[in-house]
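Hi, does anyone understand the following?
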Amino acid sequence: MKKVVSVVLVFVLAFSLAALSGCGSSDQVTLNVYNWGINIADGPEGGVDYIDVVEKFMEKYPDIHVNYTTYEDNESLYTRLKNGGVSYDVIIPSDYMIARMIREDMLLPLDFENIPNYELVDEQFKNQPYDPENQYSVPYTWGTVGIIYNTKYVDEADIGGWDLLWNERYAGKILMFSNPRDAFAIAQARLGYSFNTEDPDELQAAADLLMEQKPLVQQYVMDQIYDAMGNEEAWIAPYYAGDCMLMMQDNPDLAFYLPEEESFNTFIDAMCIPSCAENKAEAELFINFICEPEISGGNMDYIGYGTPVSAAKEYMDPEMAASEIAYPDAETLERGEAFGALSDEAQKLMDNLFDEVKAGLDMAG
């Protein structure tokens, strides 16, 4: 994505200029931060004076240079770390992936003496099933998964449930998640199954439903959704609420909804330190900085997700802080379900079934 590339290029350029000018001393630490694409405020845009989170961190800690890079989904992050040969100091996976990484000894316990701002995190985001003793993670954002659609082309009579993604009226204009966990959850919601089922028959039934959808799908995507929806190449897609808010800001014809009578995924993305980290103390400084209310508020203003630090809302645009998309009411959230870590056997079966679903359909690259 353009914005993702621009972020990386800015930091690479800044590092190069520092090296050429002799500013970077041998004592400077390079902190490798690996985050979702388009998931951090990186400065003014579209006439809005958004903060640049990484720049502000480096101003506060001039002896630390941040090398910021991005990934598309939890599975890409997991594979890169599992294959080894890389070094990241801060990563931001989702709840179920955190549980899996803890199980596989891929994360380091945090020293909360270095993260005093953890006390500002709302209690509802602590002691979560993915990290019940709060040893390995600090919440970064939370949100929901629903449907974004173009009001110019989609009949309002057709919206309301996940079945819009199976509506033949919109064949060839529908996008679908390219990662198995999110895609299966939508099929499981339609079938009335738990998102955490490991029953082989239920997983097969979800795969069959996704196979029925396949002829209608234009492409399976992650960050590619921005271009496809923005240029009206596609009209309908499931996606994360915060990203949908960004797209809606750029295109007023886009709208978002959570299924009215079906379940949907609720998630927490959290900051962790992987076992390959080389700068743990500096990573904890970064995590602590992100939890500062002023920083969290400015960051969430840009990325559109829910902040786990309620004090941050004082620093947010009032309209964003009151958004029903970013902050659904309690009654709505009761229909949501969080992902848990599946067993290796169930995850392998889901992955294989999804590979079969996608086989033969050109993928967005």
